[in-house]
Amino acid sequence: MRPAFRLLQATVRSGGRYLEPGTPTGLTGLYTHASPRSTLLYLYSSTLDKLKAGVPEHSLYRQSVEALTKHRMSLVESVIPPGYEAWAEKARKLLKEHPERFNVVSSASVDGAAASRVERGGQVFLIRHLPKEEDMRYQEWDGEIDEGPELEGSRSLDEKRDLELLAQRSDMHDSDKVEWESEPQLTAEQVYELEHKIGAGLIEEVVQVAEGELKLVDTMIQAKAWEDLEEKPAEGQWVYFERKA
């Protein structure tokens, strides 16, 4: 059953009405996701890649996770946000013109945020690492002494020359900045439709499950869960749990 607050958000939708990112969903500690579609596609693609690379095909774990992941991925891909085709064409053009700007490079930035270009299952994803905003009131004092306001009056020629150079200096990273637009949002109607098709709660809950599944793959690979037990179970040990036809 969908939380009442999210249900209220869905009932007021009209035409191109969107859910506001960061607003409460009605579930404690869970807030409206800004880009659930692209996030899910990236998580599902990463999960499939890890399964293919680290888990043998005969593993029942791989078979079941692949089946569920591919099913949900197809549902997500079927819901296209308004204006997506125009945005995708512009994004492909930008990636082609500035390939060096979308690699894991400290100086590369997109709207001031470091970015990395990742390919998953034939699709290209741009991962933006937004800098964390910090409140200066909670920053530790660096020991610098406040020398008061800048002194007034005449200056020497060397001081004036230094000030002129400082005023003319430009941002070193201006040439690395690229204007990047985020993927268009799904409408409230599309979010509701996708949640109904998946049938696993709010889209934000689906994202959380996908994140957990991606982490679980690493644990299963490390444990090699598909291999036989070192200690064989005793005869009839699991008979009690079998379902009789």
Automatic annotation (TrEMBL):
Q: Give membrane topology per the record.
A: Peripheral membrane protein
Pfam families the record matches? ETC_C1_NDUFA5
Q: Tell me, which GO biological process terms does this entry list?
A: respiratory electron transport chain
The record lists the organism as Diplogelasinospora grovesii
Q: Which UniProt keywords apply?
A: Electron transport, Membrane, Mitochondrion, Mitochondrion inner membrane, Respiratory chain, Transport
Question: Which cellular compartments is it found in?
Answer: Mitochondrion inner membrane
Q: GO CC terms for this protein? A: mitochondrial inner membrane
The entry's family comment says: Belongs to the complex I NDUFA5 subunit family.
The uppermost taxa in this organism's lineage are: Eukaryota, Fungi, Dikarya, Ascomycota, Pezizomycotina
Its protein name is ETC complex I subunit conserved region-domain-containing protein
Stretches assigned to coiled coil: none
Signal peptide extent: none
Which InterPro entries does this UniProt record tie to the protein? NDUFA5
